[in-house]
Amino acid sequence: MATEEPITLLDQWGLKVVSPEQALICCHCQNALRIGADYVLQHIASHQSVESIARDLLERHLKTFELNDVAQLNSRIPFTTAQITVIRKLWSIISSQPDLRLNTSEIEVDGDEEDSEEGEEDDDDEDDDEEDDEDGEDGEDDGGHEDDNYFPDDHAADAGSLIPLVDNHSTGSDILSELIFKLSILLCRDEFTDGQPSSSALVYISGILAFITDGAGFQTPRLYTPTISTLLHLPLLLFPEDSLPCRQYPHLKIPARPGRDHLEILNSVRCRYMCAGSLTPLGEMISLLDYGRRMLRSEPPTFFVRWSDDRQTIFFDDHGLHMDQFRGFARSLSDSATDWYNQLMHQWQPDVSLGGIRDSFSNNTPGYSFVYDSANRLNDAYLQLSTRVCGMGPAALIQNGEWDLPAIIEYLQLHDRGLHALGGAMAVSDGECLASVRCLPPWYEMVR
């Protein structure tokens, strides 16, 4: 089962089968969940860090399992029986041909490993009975882990009766994506043994991320706290889909979410796995993040600065910045913002003097805005701009009576670049960062 180049094969499957965020966050969920996950990832400035850390954790778990027996014994990584079963299935798929097609009977997550390797083919009824017995044995071996109970007992029958588990066209990619989702959930739901966080494989391996590059020391709280925040972010995206799946997972025998009692199901998961102080990786990450933030107050500055005697030059590390250069930088940001907005306005300059704009802060009339004040002559400015942007020029958003989707996307990207330039100009030239935040869309406020 071992391969000579596990990382190469893993990267090949990761690129061809699922992207990192699909693999560890939603794993081929329906469009509703994908839209939600993509919205979060696309509008968080550190989404690349989220993807890289998620991928790094998955690779480390798979690489560790491929160590020889002596190395695994020395590493003392506490994999549970259920986690080992899933990882073995993952490696069996990764080491196979990319065009491999498997059916459900070939990849039972909780089935017996030896039976699957020998390729025994029993009747469906006998397979189901054996799987039920083996599930009970796995639960005992895991020391109380209930990772396979995706619904409370009161709702298991109701959830299973809503959507039948039918799978006539199974592929290796479908199985791989569901197994990655299964492994991610098992890692996040792994409860501590004797209250020791090191008994969780996720907490144990995530500690490796705290090492500096050469492994000779540990990162400072300022550098490691963002990693902790990422580790917190991943379970928060996984648990909702685990508790209330948008679709069925036929290979894992997980039905789609029931039609009722959603709040009760979510609350049971929240109380057990997501509250501060819970004996799970998420609870441990919450404690570590809180501790890291407290340590930040006593940590020295990232770098020191000093001023020249004439107070015109500031030095940091081996660099220096004169105030004339700084003023020129602010001017360049302002000019850049002007250029972006000229393109957004399609070079249109309304005959409006900003100095003559009238506004009434004491006017509490619902719907009042300086835009609609007749003295400002801005009532129809929006319509005029829309007419120019949609129907005039080679970059018009409407071509031949239909919306030009590439032009619309380019215009929205131009809008974002203009906001970045405007925010930088306001922060550097005026020092009013809060004023610039008010001009930004909601997701920028969320990131802040």
Quick rundown:
This protein has 448 residues and is mostly helical. Helix content is 55%, strand content 3%.
Q: What is the CA-based Rg, rounded?
A: 28 Å
Average pLDDT number: 67
How many domains in all? 3
Distance between the termini: 47 Å
Percent of residues in helices comes to 55-70%
Largest sheet: 3 strands, antiparallel
State the order of secondary-structure elements, H for helix, E for strand: HHHHHHHHHHHHHHEEEHHEEHHH
Q: Please mark out the parts with pLDDT under 50 across 5 or more consecutive residues, or reply none.
A: 1-47, 100-170, 442-448
InterPro entries: ARM-type_fold
Region (Disordered): 103-154
Biased composition (Acidic residues): 107-145
Keywords:
3 domains; extended; 448 residues; single chain; disordered C terminus; mainly alpha; 55% helix; 3% strand
Description:
- The protein has 448 residues and is mainly alpha-helical.
- The protein has 3 domains: 6-72, no CATH class; 172-297, no CATH class; 321-445, no CATH class.
- Helix content is 55%, strand content 3%.
- The protein has 19 helices and 5 strands.
- The chain has helices at residues 6-16, 20-26, 31-42, 47-65, 69-75, 81-94, 113-118, 124-141, 153-160, 172-188, 201-206, 221-243, 262-274, 281-298, 323-344, 381-391, 405-429, 433-437, 442-447, and strands spanning 305-307, 313-316, 319-322, 398-399, 402-403.
- A hairpin with a 5-residue loop joins strand 1 (305-307) and strand 2.
- Helix 6 runs antiparallel to helix 10 and helix 12 runs antiparallel to helix 13 (262-274).
- The chain is extended.
- It starts with 5 loop residues before the first helix and ends with a helix.
- The model is unreliable at 1-47, 100-170 and 442-448 (pLDDT under 50).
- Residues 103-154 are annotated as: Disordered.
- Residues 107-145 have a biased composition (Acidic residues).
- InterPro entries: ARM-type_fold.
